[in-house]
Amino acid sequence: MISTIRKTDYAIRDQKGKVVFYVLLWKKKGITLELFDDYWKNVHGPVCARLPGQHQYWQFHVAHNQGDLWPIIDGINYNSQLEEQFDGIAELTFETESDRQTWFKTATVLMDDEHNLFRKAIGYNASLGNSKTYIDAIPTGNPNGELNILKFHVMLKKSDAVNVEEFRKYMTDSFAPAIVKNDLVLKFRLHLFEEVDNSRPDAAKVSHYEPQQQQYQAAFEIAFSNTLEMQTFFASKEYTTAVKEQAKYVKRINSFPERSVYTFVYDGQMTLAGQRSSRVAELIAKVGATNQLQENIVSLMSGKQNLKSGLGHYLQGMQHVGVTVQDMEKSLEFYLEVLGGKLVIAENGLMGDGMQNTLFQKEEIDANLQVANPQNFDIPNLRDAKEALDIKFISFGNTCIELIYFREAAILNAQSSSRESIPSHIGNVNAMHISFHVKDNVDLNIFAKILEDECHNRGLTNVVFNRVIHVKSAEERRKIALRYNSNKFWNEPDLLAEDQAETDFGEFEGWALFYCKGPNGEQLEFNQVTRKAKEHFDKAQEEYNMANGISSAVSNSKVEAAIANLNQATLERPPGTTSDLVKRLFSRGEAFDTEGFITFFTDTPVYQFGNFEVCLDKAAIKKSAEAFFSQISAVYHDIKMIREIEDVVFVEMDVIYWRKDGSVVRLPCCDIFRVEGDKFSELRIFMDVNPVFNPRTFVPESASIFTINQGKKLASLHTMRKHFAEHPEGKRRVEAGFAPKWSIDGPKWSIGKEELNLSEQLEAVVQLSGFVLNEDWEQVKHFLTDDIFYKVGSSEPVYGKQAVVNFLSSMFANTAKFTGHEIRKIWHESGIIVVEMDAKYITVQDKRHLTIACCDIYRMRGNQVSEWRVYADILPFYQGKPQEQPTQTNGNGNKYFSSVDSQQ
């Protein structure tokens, strides 16, 4: 069957591998091809996978070139001599040239193994930007075996009549662009090679030398679904265009069919094949042995067994050691200039209730029990702003030192600390604390309670943690709500400072922590470092390692081993992460990733979507989801509420569907999930989905879950958009080609934080439109600046929010009443929004229904409109005869449907 529509393009997942080492391999004489394959993928491959620096590592096991794949062009040789017939290709990609050099320096262990299976190994380097995947419609990016498609690795030698630059220009500007225009090509990846480094010595009778006349200057990987599609491609106009001048630039084309492919490193992490060998990975996959992916098994097999892990699976290691100092200036000189650390974050003047409670609540409670003044216990006073806290984080690569400096609040550059003595708490000079790094996907509030409960169950009653709210006794502290357990340096629902913007936290945006006493009174801290703060730590660690020649750096973003592919649901669900599991499931749906979608369900699930037939196994869920996705272009889950009660999760939201005809519908929905272990045993979706299939069904805006009363709506939380932009797994999935369909079709929202900020401005314009429609003029004024400029068509402009309200209310009362609109398209960027629409009116005098084509331009100052221009012909308002502007149509005469951008 011939494909007629290009499938999802996963080419983006190769973009991070910017430099390449591409090795042609000839098997050792005297061993069978079967033995060669077996040893290479099960012994040699896992050794290579453990070397540092790799982003991706594939083994391509190939058949010999037969010379009859490509249609013959005069002047080009398609045959290979016997000595040119290699048996495999190893392709290793690296994010930087430094990473590639790191790998080269540690590859001696591979050279020692080469003589066991190779007689010749010729390595080609592709410099920065000279390896590129143009298209890739193969869903599996990290295969382990056969792909059941036709794939070829094609080697090219340039013509003697052109130089290397001319040859490369032909390949990138003429050949590749023409090839990828044909939808029958599943994959096309091109490499442009540097000359082979023949100074590389041979290793134990394995040749690394290739005469210049035998070297290739390029290679490409090309794939087709089947032979018919390949032959149809060769007969296509795209292929004819691609090879029109080929003989001028190419003198030899040798094609090697791929027999199988194995992945040992993917996205910077060892795959299961890299950890345990290809054969073991295959057996685990066939049996479905998910227990083999659990952390204790992985640790056991890697020789890192920990029989008493306790709560260690919540942590990813030590993060920093804190030192309370007497002289900040001298301390910075010592740690930065003498020892060469790198400054990460500097924050001055931390004060207030939250900081006091976070750091010193236990000490203040002890003072209260003794009916004493906390000041007599030598406790700093941040609460009343009499003292202030300055902190500096300094990176030494694998960990950090935090310098803690208490001073008088009124003295910004105090020469010495306001603290002198050395009791047990953090506020005193030379007092230290130990900080543990909690994993990003753990709810810090819940972990704090788990930790304290676990310790108290063991009789370790001295272990207590501080809440961020002021209390006067241990009993009062225990009764405080869960949400006050940790101090979070960013804005999220239920925080004390609900209206505080994330930007107010500066370089600390993304930090969360709680302080805790250890069993002997030692000061402990548990923190998460995400978002902006994490970027600072990663950057400082990289700078430190580069400055000191350290090659074994592991970024915080690459700590956890990738022991399963992106569709594998988390095998261990820490308490409080079910909401995250829901969002991860939705991310599969929004990417139309049905394979990934069903991995979140138990083997005996109950799945019911509206009034559709109930699905009772994963195969039925997959079939149902595929059928539904085939009828829409994109879907988005606009979440209003997620609540967990024991093993049940309730989700209230609007679900937005982009239909195939370009129209959009927003439907209210409530999902109920039931959880067993780390999987969903039941999902029931309660909604009326019929409007998706019938665009004529009217769905009022007030049907939205976000409607709170007549004419008023809550702002969207943009939960799923933030998931793809900020969540580690969400970002990895986008990089791997599993981007949400709404970023490709429908509104084509970009994935990034800047776009989320833009959406707040767009949301403001949407709410403004709703209040204008309902003639709620007081609410309208909230969305306008005091000095707003407003102009309709050729009329005189008006200035000021009251003048705008007067103009609109007068027009609605005396000329024509606004009844709604149909959006054609919305364009928005920072500070400006353009809306093309059909506006609906009823004239006051003769009750005529009018449709006016218009374009509104809003210029924003923050989330308020400072300039509003309406471009429209308003003559029909004043015509005597009933007359209506024609509804806008596209080039085919079809009516435009409203765009959901008006909702977002």
How would you describe this protein?
The structure is a single chain. This protein is an alpha+beta fold and 904 residues long. Mean pLDDT is 82; it is low at 305-309, 552-576 and 881-904. The strands form five sheets. Strands 1, 2, 3, 4, 5, 6, 7, 8, 9, 10 and 11 form an eleven-stranded antiparallel beta sheet that branches. Strand 25 (707-709) and strand 26 form a beta hairpin. 27% of the residues lie in helices and 29% in strands.
Distance between the termini: 40 Å
Query: What's the number of extended β-strand segments?
Result: 32
Helix content: 25-40%
User: For the residues shown, what is the average pLDDT?
Assistant: 82
Q: In DSSP terms, counting alpha (H) and pi (I) runs of 4 or more, how many helices?
A: 24
Short structural summary:
The chain contains 24 helices and 32 strands.
Q: What are the main properties of this structure?
A:
single chain, 904 residues, alpha+beta, eleven-stranded antiparallel beta sheet, eight-stranded mixed beta sheet, 27% helix, 29% strand, disordered C terminus
